[in-house]
Amino acid sequence: MTLPEWSPQLYPLMMILALSTGVWLRSRQHPDERLEPLERFWIGMSAFVGAMLAARLPFVVFGIYEGQDFYGLFLSGKTILAGLAGGYLAVELTKKLLGVTVRTGDSFVVPVAGSIAVGRLSCFVGGCCYGVPASQPWAVIFPNVDAVPRHPAQLYEFLFHSLAAVVLHVLTKRGLFRTKLFRMYLIAYCVYRFSSEYLRPEARLVWGLTAYQWSAALLSVVFMYLLFREPARHEGLGVRG
């Protein structure tokens, strides 16, 4: 399969669709009555801003180190792995500032997974985040990269986040693993990202691992600690946590 040369023009549209998917999925959930409307607003806003800033931070740091332009780097590169971690941290800091002790991760996890799934389709049509050369029947040629058939790594990740959204929705509806779902999702994504990096043409650093693999390994340890440091809560309203 060869993508049409005009497919990158669909990237902005698909990104808007990804954001709209997250907003729509969030609107389908009942508001957490334990939070005031203004608290819900600031928590949601901090998650969005924290994720957007953190997603670009690695590119800015390494780019400045290499003497590249700050604004060009900030507007171009981004990484979902850092974005998820940044959004989580921003929410926790905002809740501390507001004095909120309610666990809010469960209410965000399905919208986040669904939004990222559609976002990976943006990467696919845009021709970024592609995989290594491949001979499988489903290999894709990205004309804005080269004429070599490659693993559609973006579609693999689309399937991961789509499946995660479905599983997390079921767990939420059944009230299982309450208050732990977002951290479970982050750990699962770290494991997936570590494994899938072998299908992506990233630079190998220490011990033959990429920067993303080192980041995924570190973050998985952090979120494993956060996951098991306290028992799951079974009290509260509805299925919120």
Topology:
Layout: H1 11-27, H2 37-65, H3 70-76, H4 80-98, H5 105-126, E1 140-141, E2 149-150, H6 153-174, H7 181-196, H8 211-228
Antiparallel strand pairs: 1-2
Provide a quick synopsis of the model:
It is built from eight helices and two strands; from the N terminus they run αααααββααα.
Q: How far apart are the first and last residues' alpha carbons, in Å?
A: 44 Å
How many runs of DSSP E, i.e. beta strands?
Answer: 2
Helix count, DSSP H or I runs of 4 or more residues = 8
Helical residues, percent: 55-70%
Strand order of the largest sheet: 1-2
Count of structural domains? 1
**Shape call:** globular
Q: Over all CA atoms, what is the radius of gyration?
A: 19 Å
Largest beta-sheet characterization: 2 strands, antiparallel
Q: Could you tell me the strand content as a percent range?
A: under 5%
Oligomer: single chain
Write down the overall mean pLDDT.
Answer: 81
Write the H/E string, N to C: HHHHHEEHHH
- Alpha-beta content class: mainly alpha
Low-confidence stretches: 70-75, 232-241
